[in-house]
Design goal:
This protein has helices spanning 14-25, 88-106, 126-140, 154-157, 159-167, 185-197, 213-223, 234-244, 249-261, 276-284, and strands at 5-9, 29-34, 46-49, 67-70, 110-114, 144-150, 169-173, 179-180, 202-205, 211-212, 228-232. By secondary structure, the chain is of the alpha/beta class.
Length: 286
Amino acid sequence: MSFPLVVVAGATGAIGAEVVRELQSRGTRIRALVREPARLTTEPEEIFVGNLLNPRTLEGSCAGADAVVSCAGASFASKLFTYKAEAFFAVDDGGNRSLLREAEEAGVRRFGYVSVYGGRFLGMMEYVRAHESFAAAMRLSSIDHLIVRPTVTFARLSPLVEHARKRGKLSIVGTGQAQTNPVHEADVAKALADGLEGREEEVDVGGPEVLTWEEIAGMAAAAAGDADVRFSYLWRAQLRAAFRRFTGRHGYDSAVYRIAESAVDMVAPVVGDRRLEDYFASLGAR
């Protein structure tokens, strides 16, 4: 199935930018749906300025498009006292539903969505529930759908190197023995493009290496110049997360997910061959 024109929402993000590059390499024209065009690191053929939280700004965004891909979601990063931060349900569910309605009205053939791996066993968490709620809406839509669920991406782990470089140490929650297989954004983009052209409806993707969080922290520390790796008690992390509830719901939801992520094995089917250690080394050399 070919798609001459694809709308990519969230094209300024790490995954979204790779989706733009991957689809362009296959001869597809891209219409980037973004709030801030200045943040684009790619060169889409078209740019449509809109905000998923304001449905009126999405009018016409999908006109003439053959498919829509949404990599859009609330930022996972959080700071203290972020009362006005965009909540996961507002963007990942509500905002994407607005885009889905626009795509339905425009007669789009296929809708792809980058969700999160772990919904089957972390479904009670706000971060996961927001993604799975929209996934449920997609299944009820008249448009053919594709849901791609990656494990933790390289870009989301990149702050570990900077943190270790600045402080000379890196702390991980609990024993650090939970396993996952981190995946590069470019490999997620390829899996999504392949699935979009095929008939898949749901695809889980992870990287080629199954690593413990202790090993991930060790790689980040080495890339930062042999910083110390320390272990923090789970109860301390839980206490800090509870405190965040009083300083902003988004920060609390992010912290709770990070704790669960570090304590539960999350290993998905392998795509690609990019190694996390090489990625960290490239960050350390900057």
